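From the shared-data thread, chain only:
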Amino acid sequence: AMADEIYLEPLTTETIKRIIKKEKPDSLLAGLGGQTGLTLAMQLDKEGFLEEQGVRLLGTDAKAISRAEDRELFKEAMAEIGQPVIASDIAETVEGALEVAERIGYPVIVRPAFTLGGAGGGAAANEAELRVIAQTGLDASPITQILVERAIFGWKEIEFETMRDGVGNVIAVCSMENFDPVGVHTGDSIVVAPTQTLADKEFQMLRKASLDIITHLGIVGGCNVQLALNPDSFEYAVIEVNPRVSRSSALASKATGYPIAKITTKIALGYTLDEIKNDITGKTCACFEPTLDYIVVKMPKWPFDKFADASRKLGTQMKATGEVMAIAPSFEMALMKAVRGAEVGLDSLNRKNDPEDHAPIWERLRRVDDHRLFTIFEALKGGTSIDEIFSITRIDRWFLAKLKKMADFEKALEKDSLTVEHYETGKKMGYPDDTLKRLSGAAALPCEKKDAVYKMVDTCGAEFDAETPYFYSTFDKFCESRTFPRSGKPVIMVLGSGPIRIGQGIEFDYSSVHCVWTLKELGYEVVIVNNNPETVSTDYDTADRLYFEPLFPEDVMHIIEVEKPVGVVVAFGGQTAIKLT
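Structure, as tokens:
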């Protein structure tokens, strides 16, 4: 159902050449196949094969891709427009790497050329470590080349998802801030959109830098710009530019309701941003920058439960297999939803301590691992000050203050039990009823249970009405889902499969999408519940109504109260939906 011709073949230049000769395509679109698609297109272009066969590269041209991907050309391009990059140099041997490190100073980070997800890279604090990591990096790179750069641990990591068309219109679709400072791969970091801790001057400076960069490189379509900002000054550096859709684009698309891949494709065909309509409002065009009147938190899903002996340490190589996203009016509520949705067996930030781990809290705070968030929460509950935690983790004090607010609330619950006032506060912070009862030791709720209301993702901060129903829950007065027009057909709810993990991936998601399409054909109104930003089920135009919510008993029951479905389909949600049932 996807394409006119589908080839199940290895993604190698040899295969692609055979298919091009047979199909004689007019053009080729590379930037939507991630790093693999980009690398293949670049190899075919370099060999002159595309030109010889008369195939055009659509979207960003080969020269611009090279300037963004090749570290050396990228540095030159940044120097041309005065954008600061991190001190670094290329090495093709281990000895070369050691010379570079001597010149720019330790600690350094090694990044192999043309690899995916930071594969083969790592950080080295001295010569002995660098010898090992440089060799690994050289082996991992298809062209045996690595970049050795000065490590800027502790700086803030900020990303802008941007869009540019062929005539030079540029917009910033979404700004994102990593909870973890530079040093943790963005795929392994908790990410918050829009940025929370930047002053307006910092935000405008980085936004302008991002737009200047994609303009100078000549990007056509979506592009991801990663920047590092020194928290103590206005000094910043450009980390890298991905001239393609990436994992962050999926997140930015779902966070804003702005379909990056779809618009990138239209731009590649020659449309300009002002000619493309915004599907969600039906009135505005794609050159309107999305406005968020809510906060989005992305939480990675790690496979460590499957690998008992694997190192849980997080660094420049990505280890997460998937992620969940949560939308809420406050950071606290979004974070609580993300933790419930990540299916790590927690419904709050209180993790059961590992009986074999006797390390004191200050030592555990130094670890950069998947328990970091919970360790910080434990430290705050135990009375460690925000400044102490900041000096160890370099996680911005704004985030730490939010976590402290939650820790203080839990301590008050234990002291006063569950009062009506505490119940109200707890619901606004995103705590489920059962969790509030458990933490306070109360046998019952102090008042009638609060019902969730649903707000809409509309890309424009409610400036225009949304035509596509894309909802998230909050505890507020007015519900936008209950007032949304219904067709009167019977409603069926389909449960999604949550985050991608080992043994449960997009095959479940795509089954649930086919289920939605089939039910629509059979004359039902279909509601989907899921929290994975990388899937087709969470596209705003798959089901009649989309609820971006954790697959957690209380969250799903609240949706059932609003939608009153005649049935719920659980067969396509994998283990997640079965457990929920």
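The chain has 20 helices and 19 strands.
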